């Protein structure tokens, strides 16, 4: 069967009004209207030309958020921070308001009083199905772009679909962290899903099994946008040269809301773990100290410094330093749009459960132990072309 | 036919007593005797395990040089410069002297008085064949690691094998630059050849045709050791992400003999051209200012700074800076050994003429327009495994 | 006598509509109206509090320019380049138009047909005196912020005031480069003068002597805004520690108009010379390779990389790398305002001729061989406080 | 009175066999014998020429250490690490053994069983006075170069000399941390003292008062060798320009014994506090995240990255990044020799108690709130010249 995803498709953002969600929503409007080029979108590069993906104009944005600051309001803050040009907001403000009208309240606590997590997830799923019906969508892709949660409390039910299905139905029982309730809601709504944050989300094996049963493709986890991407570009290259990495030390400086969240040592734990896992695999070194510092005056800019120390011929030493500086949301947003298009293609092609070939987009790819960016890029292109062929 | 190159093999270095030649010769002794590991050698990485390459102990070093400073003497200078550990020289000094006894005088001028370039090349070829006979070698691989020449004067004979064969026989006529006379000598000796410098060498189409006729495999050109390698790792990764490189500016600082040679604006022209060619192909940008500065106090260390400016989503800007610092000869020497082993394999497998799959090792690969390091690494492994299968 | 410069003062900008001129004019309006703080202004720091300098509201802007693109139009381009916030231009646009009305055509060629350079200078001086009269100014400070000229043709008259006074009166004789005609015009108008570019300007000894005779204070040359300032901060510190600088290599990347001008190898010669002179004095090293590259996509941002290699105890080596990134006009503009205030104070205090204590502001200070930034800062404060005491 | 310190002087190193102690001892031998120049020694710079300081040959090394690995053995490890050239060790090995014979066992625990801290200190003092007698020394300077201790437990006796004198005499009472017992021993021996580590040492006010009473000059604390020195060079320069530092983030990578010690979060607390204190004073910013990572493969090299974000004119932003790389012990050792010479001068000049003018050498200067390196350099020179005049 040949997949064809050229159809109206929903992009449902969990955390729609955050920095990444706002940038994705605004950017989509700008692309559809021709106000901006598609730089940063993988699916706009030549290798994807001609594939039957939904067009920019086919994507309809909705989502959940606990914030009631509107997309346009949030975008204004990003204009003030120098990230988004003022004329671009002016040109897209109306369409942003239309998208904002499709944002529904997220669930704050893990439960409704006296109820079960099943009930919460069903309420979320209803928002998604109503959205699909309202807009006559062929399918919906849910992307979690909300803030990082602390690591989830372990539970045996996380590994067993049947046990999980039972546990979420127990009134008053909290077996899933909030991000996983949202992921479960996507499954109930029959929506494809991508986990762009390090939060548990659909990362629990039991949820992935339920997604496979429900026939929805899912991918994750934790968007590989900047420093980690760069590391997975460089580390395999050292290996290809036979150069042995001795240590890889790094620091991230970031302001913005993400910086504040990650200043919390609990929340940062998930992040640091997923950031160094691939690197250790690729280099074999476990000397990989890494820090994330909240530097509010940087606004939405993220600066990452890395120091690589490697051994070359006859014990000689090599050092490589890199400094990367970018608006992190500007790196993430086009990847979110790419995931919407590619998961739509997967769904159209009948792919169900974890899609390892989407590992290119993630720090901690589900269903794959490939971290090398060039290999992942090859896999991705081959997979997409294969589905469409 | 299955190639098998496990046999005594000559490694004939043009410029044997230079920094790269000395490091390669010393390193080979150290590897063969187990005094050092093979970090930096591509052919020692897992992908090449089990291939029928000559072992370190199978490689015998000889060469040409215009200098009469011995290998051991040159190595002492590298010890003083902090590049080679003193105990390693102590352990290898005797074997270095043995190798040095196989170094013959290179030709200084382009001609012998009253003679032809054919005569010069034949004299060089005789040195190689005598070396092979003396040591009972299955084959010889010539690698040019001499200093960079100024660009060669163009001649129609460079493109036409018959015309070239005639021209070199005219007494008193200088149609080939010195590096190409050496390359021609390799062809006459039936030796495989790698051009590790930007000098013309075997880069002239007529010489490559003669090599193909003679049944010898050749590869080049200009070893991709440090900054250029890093660029061909990074630039394709930007493209894979859909990020548009706007400019890529760089500076190299180096001391040592190479630095002094490249302080000559004539000599540096060849180098700068081959360094930016691949980058422009890979990025589409022609804003690629690049400098090479002679900084004698750095000794054999080379420091390279790059500043990449790219456009991301919605016109946002990304900057990446890299600083690379390494002993350049320590990067080059193991690649020279790799080329000896792999060209021996090619020769054993009956490969004649230009070998595009060896492009991984070169800034300006002959017979190939692939510059992306990851793609080149894949090609190389596939090719070597294919030859051996 | 105690200087008191609290009075209406003209700031006459040669090259008023360039990037620095526009930023200075707009910034002055913003400061006077309280739309912006005075970060970057030396005279706003605590050491200068209470000195009888003209207030921001006392400074009236006029100038010469060969361009007829208005200040407001130029400022729009700087808004588009992300350098000036749009709301700030909106708040200052009217006042900018008022300033722009005081910009008179600069002289393009060195001469009027059939006339002398004296006549050209007198015409320029008349523009200045008319401006002073129109606004009831106590004094005028001329600051040259125009594009860099190629080095001036040497002439014996440049060293001899009498010879120069005669030469400029010869019809058809071109003895002064354009920037020096403008400087001579300032002398004729009795205006103080600062040379913020590397062009000859008032740098000719004969002109400085004429300025001293005319009783006007003058200072220069070539604003020490970014990389050179940083070097004169760091180099003395190495010396204070007894660390011996072996080499100091650097590269500048810049877009904007200045970048285009300096892409001209002739023009860049003046610049590079003044940039390395102080460094060589401070370090004793003459290994100071330096490049300026035009990278248009950087817009008005300037990025400077430096690599310092030093010798420490027992021959050990130290490396320091610095990367500086800033809008160069944003560094220059507040220094132009500082010079206006401080030269007004000097004039009020009866200082005539070269003012060495203003060396803090310049790469190539007139009348001083002090380059160390901390020493210059001390000298400046002491001098200003002394004048006012 | 005119100080004259040209006399045999003891340099008693607490932690003599550590990396800094060994480097200082070996370096002193090399300087005295003319095997090496005095780069890195402040007192060898022109400003100190002609002052009546002890010559290199006048300094005699002894010390305490808990390690029994000899100086020569320790130096071998530094040769292997590439820090000390092998020929230099060969030339100094005999003299190092002579110095090593003057190293006495340090006290490990805070007490001898059943005894008092007074007794411990007296034992240490006896070692020093016997050393002075044995060599006919005019005076002894004690410099603490031992590993960093965890922060000391507070005690009221630390602020009151009489209370302290009583407390140390109570059998079984531990009122002083080990570094302070050593400092007290110096006072009892009538020796001058410098605290080159962040450990409490002579930093307790009660000890400083006892030193003043005993007529010995003391200075500290925590040698300002690399990154912190660089920060105190740069931060005042930003202020002199009116540029407002918004944040100053940094990371240190270091291997060696110091790196291992500082990998202990308790020990690192003292260090990080003294590293950021001066910076906050100088910039007014409290966004100064800083990390120290143990990267064993770096050996004795220390790499420090800083990212400075500042506000310039009209709210524009400036970034400065610095990367500093050096053998930290090679920076520290010459400062230890400088302190020996200068404290000898102070002692000869009758200076007693804290010497604020030696703040140049310290991250956390006693008796001074000046942190700006250039100001400290001026103070130092003026003070030394004044004492000698």
Automatic annotation (TrEMBL), chains A, B, C, D:
SUPFAM superfamilies: Glyceraldehyde-3-phosphate dehydrogenase-like, C-terminal domain (SSF55347), NAD(P)-binding Rossmann-fold domains (SSF51735). InterPro entries: Myo-inos-1-P_Synthase (IPR002587), Myo-inos-1-P_Synthase_GAPDH (IPR013021), NAD(P)-bd_dom_sf (IPR036291). One of its GO terms (molecular function) is inositol-3-phosphate synthase activity. Residues 226-329 form the Myo-inositol-1-phosphate synthase GAPDH-like domain. Pfam families: Inos-1-P_synth, NAD_binding_5. Gene3D superfamilies: Dihydrodipicolinate Reductase, domain 2 (3.30.360.10), NAD(P)-binding Rossmann-like Domain (3.40.50.720). GO terms for biological process: inositol biosynthetic process; phospholipid biosynthetic process. It comes from the Bacteria. Belongs to the myo-inositol 1-phosphate synthase family. PANTHER family: MYO-INOSITOL-1 PHOSPHATE SYNTHASE. This is Myo-inositol-1-phosphate synthase. It comes from Cellulomonas pakistanensis. The lineage of its organism: Bacteria, Bacillati, Actinomycetota, Actinomycetes, Micrococcales.
């Amino acid at each position: 069967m040949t997949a064809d995803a050229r159809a109206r498709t929903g992009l449902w953002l969990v955390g729609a009004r955050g920095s990444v969600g706002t940038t994705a929503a605004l950017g989509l409007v700008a692309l559809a209207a021709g106000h901006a080029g598609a730089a940063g979108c993988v699916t706009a590069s030549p290798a994807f030309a001609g594939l039957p993906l939904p067009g920019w104009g086919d994507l309809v944005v909705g989502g959940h958020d606990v914030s009631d600051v509107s997309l346009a309001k949030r975008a204004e803050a990003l204009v003030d921070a120098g990230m988004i040009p003022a004329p671009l907001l002016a040109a897209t403000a109306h369409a942003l308001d239309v998208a904002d009208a499709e944002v529904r309240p997220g669930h704050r606590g893990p439960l409704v009083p006296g109820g079960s997590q099943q009930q919460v997830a069903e309420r979320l799923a209803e928002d998604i199905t109503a959205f699909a019906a309202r807009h006559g969508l062929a399918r919906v892709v849910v992307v979690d772009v909300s803030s990082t949660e602390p690591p989830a409390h372990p539970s045996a039910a996380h590994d067993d679909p049947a046990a999980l299905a039972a546990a979420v139905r127990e009134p008053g029982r909290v077996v899933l962290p909030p991000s996983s309730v949202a992921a479960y809601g996507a499954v109930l709504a029959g929506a494809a899903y991508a986990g762009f944050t390090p939060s548990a989300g659909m990362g629990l094996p039991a949820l992935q099994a339920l997604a496979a049963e429900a026939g929805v493709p899912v991918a994750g986890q934790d968007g590989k946008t900047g420093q980690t991407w760069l590391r997975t570009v460089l580390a395999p290259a050292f290996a290809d040269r036979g150069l042995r990495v001795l240590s890889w030390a790094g620091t991230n400086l970031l302001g913005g809301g993400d910086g504040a969240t990650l200043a919390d040592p609990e929340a940062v734990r998930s992040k640091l773990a997923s950031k160094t896992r691939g690197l250790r695999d690729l280099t074999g070194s476990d000397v990989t100290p890494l820090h994330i510092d909240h530097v509010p005056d940087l606004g939405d800019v993220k600066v990452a410094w890395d120091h690589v120390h490697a051994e070359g011929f006859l014990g000689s030493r090599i050092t490589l330093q890199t400094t990367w500086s970018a608006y992190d949301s500007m790196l993430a947003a086009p990847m979110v749009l790419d995931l919407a298009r590619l998961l739509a293609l997967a769904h159209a092609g009948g792919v169900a459960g974890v899609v390892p070939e989407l590992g290119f987009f993630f720090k901690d790819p589900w269903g794959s132990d490939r971290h090398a960016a060039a290999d992942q890029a090859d896999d991705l292109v081959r997979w997409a072309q294969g589905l469409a062929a």
